[in-house]
Design a protein that fits this description.
By secondary structure, the protein is α+β, with helices and mostly antiparallel strands. The protein is about 20% helix and about 20% strand. The chain folds into 2 domains: about 90 residues, Muramoyl-pentapeptide Carboxypeptidase, domain 1 (Orthogonal Bundle), CATH 1.10.101; about 120 residues, L,D-transpeptidase catalytic domain-like (Beta Barrel). It is globular.
Length: about 260
């Protein structure tokens, strides 16, 4: 792994599998979502359906029994639960475990949007759900929609990155940025350095799929983040490793413009 002078210190994160947060969680008490989590932490993962990471709104096929059990085993269940909450079909806790309540919410969402009702978050479900639950759409800077560029726009308030391909919304990911003492800097930038295997020279922590855009601040996969709404970085935009890999596959060979905007949260 390369050890360059470019550094983005990652804040120590909570690795609690069902940590509470003020980002829309429901304190509903014990449920199949939380009760089932312990059973899958050490269980072998199910075979996954392959997906194209370069496709619009791409996510893996997520189904009942899946769980976000570690930073290197993210099934996007927390993201699914957050987005179903914002879509108004889920009121359970955000646990990272796909149980009965999540399955019921997926079915309700599929019924509402005339999708095949399977109870699985398949590719078609994600394709409908992700753009519907991009938050703060009116605040997205007009520069993000430029038709002559790839543009990654980080909304600090809503913990989200939207990716635009020549003016078309291509994907959106849940992320976390800098703390109140080290907030990700506001402004308009362009990626100036990339390192697929970057390692922090201060904390000796991997920063996979790093794309640096402002004085050491970068988009990169986090080896600490389980929940985008828990803890912060020291300025970088932390992504799930798989999401950072998607951004890399889509943009690493192209000029990538970056906008950071929104109130700190």
């Amino acid at each position: 792994m390369k050890r360059q002078g470019l550094v983005c210190v990652i804040a120590v994160a909570s690795l609690t599998l069902a940590a509470p947060s003020a980002a829309g969680r429901s304190a509903t008490g014990p449920s199949s979502e939380s009760a089932g989590l312990a059973a899958v932490v050490t269980a072998p993962s199910q075979s996954k359906v392959a997906f194209n990471p370069r496709a619009r709104f791409a996510r893996e096929f997520t189904r009942r029994g899946d769980a976000d059990t570690s930073v290197r085993h993210i099934e996007h269940v927390r993201e699914l639960q957050y987005r179903l909450t914002w879509a108004g079909v889920y009121s359970g806790p955000v646990t990272g475990y796909f149980g009965e309540l999540t399955q019921r919410a997926v079915k309700q969402f599929q019924q509402q949007y005339d999708l095949r009702v399977t109870g699985h978050a398949n590719f078609q479900t994600w394709e409908e759900l992700i753009p519907l639950t991009v938050r703060g759409k009116r605040a997205i800077p007009g520069r993000c929609l430029l038709r002559n560029a790839w543009h990654a726009c980080y909304d600090r308030q809503h913990h989200q990155v939207t990716l635009w391909k020549r003016g078309t919304l291509w994907n959106s990911w849940l992320v976390r940025g800098g703390s109140s003492s080290h907030p990700t800097r506001l402004g308009h930038f362009e990626v100036y350095y990339r390192d697929k295997d970057h390692v922090s020279s201060i904390y000796d922590l991997p920063m996979p799929y790093s794309q640096f855009f402002d004085r050491g601040e970068a988009f990169h996969g986090s080896v600490l983040m389980l929940d985008p709404f828990v803890d912060h970085s020291h300025g970088c935009v932390n992504m799930y490793i798989e999401d950072a890999r998607q951004l890399w596959k889509l943009t690493s060979t192209k000029p990538l413009k970056v906008d950071v905007y929104g109130a700190w949260d």
